[in-house]
């Protein structure tokens, strides 16, 4: 990347690592992982480089092929959505050089009410190039390196999707206590109204039936707009919709479910589960 509440035991922070090639991103990710594990937090690192290798791509060819890059970015986005849960910390270790991609991850944070922060590994381009040349293997070619430098969109603390932002050079000591505070001592972001869960009440069956099913449709639609087309989590109900579909089909399926449920009333506590089962069988 599962209900994210404001109490420390239930938080599931998301940490975005970003920087130009050879700026120390993986080293910083591992430092944070070790620090949090010492505080009895379970931490998972989602590595862009490992996904590239797993996909069988040569790193230099990969970054010069927009279709391959788009596929990996989509996999990262989907993996974040699948991995987020109520207990673990997720670190996304990669260039994350496109601000639009960082914004999409921010939207996932809002969707699941997840605290997050951004770690920017700040390093001048020529310094990073020299570090790249010192590598014994897995180096960037000059063309690929320069192309990534030109594409890199530096994070800005004024952008809500980059904030809170911690910029560090290779010589800096990570402000680990401040990072921890930014994740565990603040409120999680409020979700958009379209993805916020209603409070279930038994006082009005038809009202609750309409609200619950619409909430589920909204979450599926929001996830689909961010490119998440499978294993769509519904954190309010601890359920998963197997795959997305068009807005028109979702509306049609919801209308069919409402018609049946108005004729055959079910327990309010079972509405979400039954609707999700209906969607999974129908899509």
TrEMBL record:
Keywords: ATP-binding, Nucleotide-binding. GO terms for biological process: regulation of transcription by RNA polymerase II; tRNA modification. GO terms for molecular function: ATP binding. The keyword GTP-binding does not apply. Pfam families: KTI12. Belongs to the KTI12 family. This is Protein KTI12 homolog. It comes from Fopius arisanus.
